[in-house]
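Ticket #4471: structure export looks truncated?
Reporter: QA, pipeline team
Priority: medium

Steps to reproduce: submit the single chain below to the structure queue and open the exported record.
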Amino acid sequence: MARQIVLEFDGTEVAFDFSAVDRAKLYGRKRRVPLDRSGQPCTRAALTRDGSVIVRAGMTAQGFFDDAGVWIPNAELVGLDADGRPLPKVESTLGVPVKLEVAAPQDLLDHAVGTLYALVGTPPAALLGRLEAGEIFRFPFNYRADWRGEVAFLVQSTADDMLYALVGKPAPGQWCSLQTMPPPADEQPDDELDFEMF
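Actual output as written to the record:
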């Protein structure tokens, strides 16, 4: 059985099946397939910096080469923060009940959404009513165990009445302002060229 997103709202748990929504599902896609001289599809590969190893598609999912060319499997990799300190591992939230919290629209706007999931399930009537009224809820989300947990926002679309989870990471904007205000337009210097001087 596929793992589900399990949400807890007012002491009630509800499980949702989910599927990723992407451009290919919405609009379809075309794909160009390069062929070799015998008409067989080519496979993609890359050379390491020193040109000694060919890395084929899927190989980096198993591990990486360090600068000395030593193979390090993914099981031995650790996440580091900006100061180089090890980060704690964040477990997957799939199949684990996580609490819903009310979120402001600004909370959602302060996140860079990278994944959109369509949810299929029957939420409690109280939750559904609040979603239909336009409320947004947030919950911790991590598809697989790694060192960077993400945040998901539960919303309901007014176009199709579907429930969606928008998954992203914090990306607050930085506001900038001028140190000094420019002078009003009528006081600005006239930089137009006088062609009579040529």
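Status: closed, not a bug. The export was complete when the record was re-opened. Leaving a note from the reviewer for reference: The mean pLDDT is 85.
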